[in-house]
Amino acid sequence: MKITIGTRASKLALWQAEHIKAEIEGRYSDVEVVLKKIVTKGDKILDSPLAKVGGKGLFVKEIENELISGEIDIAVHSMKDVPTEFPDGLELFAITYRGDPRDAFVSAHGKSLAELSHKEDVTIGTSSLRRQAQLLIRYSHWNIVWVRGNVQTRLKRMEERGMDGIILAAAGLQRLELEHLVQEYIDPEVMVPAIGQGALGLEIRSADNELKEKLKFLIHPETTQCVLAERALLRTMEGGCQVPIGAYATMTSDGQVHLKAMVGSVDGKTVVRRESIGNDPEVLGIDLANEMLDAGARAILQEVYQDHQ
Ligand SMILES: NCc1[nH]cc(CCC(=O)O)c1CC(=O)O
């Protein structure tokens, strides 16, 4: 049997696809997995201002089209880039084990966030409103600048533009064997991670029952429950990937889902934080989102959408 995985061509995407390929081939000696690289709209406009307002699914549409037409059988995504809605005929079949969910600080001159906190004229790069908001909550006098592109490009821009550092996902740096660049890992309480950060997701055709049967071993039940709660919250807030929303869920020792979330204004001046514990990830995410919307998140998000249209 041959299975084709569709993937973006960035080093990180390829690592993730290779990782799933190795898992499948390690499990079945009679299955051959091949990778097909696909260029997405998001890849083409990476450095344009358009990418900033990109909208939902900039990195997945072309891949989904190839799934529908049968060119590929599986799409491997970073969970945090997967839209909350799927086209007819496709589904998010598996959420795999979650790696490191944290954000990481890469420092240009070996200084920690605490050391930089007293300095004037600090410039930090990020490509996420979530990270920007959470940096400004603590360090309101810092200058936050936009860096886009894949992990390697962002590191290069940091040097070229003389920034003091950038924030990246720990999981991405670890997968690219760039862990040595991390100055510090930021506690998820201080910087709440992006929805699904660190987990991988497999999208397949809903009707492909044979493949589903074969791949069910990749499903990680605890991660799935946690990420489903985070995604229910995001969906209820109608947030794409470019919103200042963070959510991170863990399992309690008695098997419940503990969801913590924050919504912050882009300038870091207003923030709504809530947490809750429950058994049903969907209900938990939806209820917490509604509670937060009523507690000020609705106003924050409306302002973000107005400014970024
Ligand atoms: N938005 C890009 C992206 N998508 C997934 C990761 C990292 C890996 C992950 O979170 O699973 C990154 C890089 C980053 O945010 O620094």
TrEMBL record:
Residues 225-293 form the Porphobilinogen deaminase C-terminal domain. InterPro entries: HemC, Porphobilin_deaminase_cofac_BS, Porphobilin_deaminase_N, Porphobilinogen_deaminase_C, Porphobilinogen_deaminase_C_sf. Monomer. Its EC number is 2.5.1.61. This is Porphobilinogen deaminase. Binds 1 dipyrromethane group covalently. Pathway: Porphyrin-containing compound metabolism; protoporphyrin-IX biosynthesis; coproporphyrinogen-III from 5-aminolevulinate: step 2/4. The lineage of its organism: Bacteria, Pseudomonadati, Chrysiogenota, Chrysiogenia, Chrysiogenales. Keywords: Porphyrin biosynthesis, Transferase. It comes from Desulfurispira natronophila. The keyword Transferase applies.
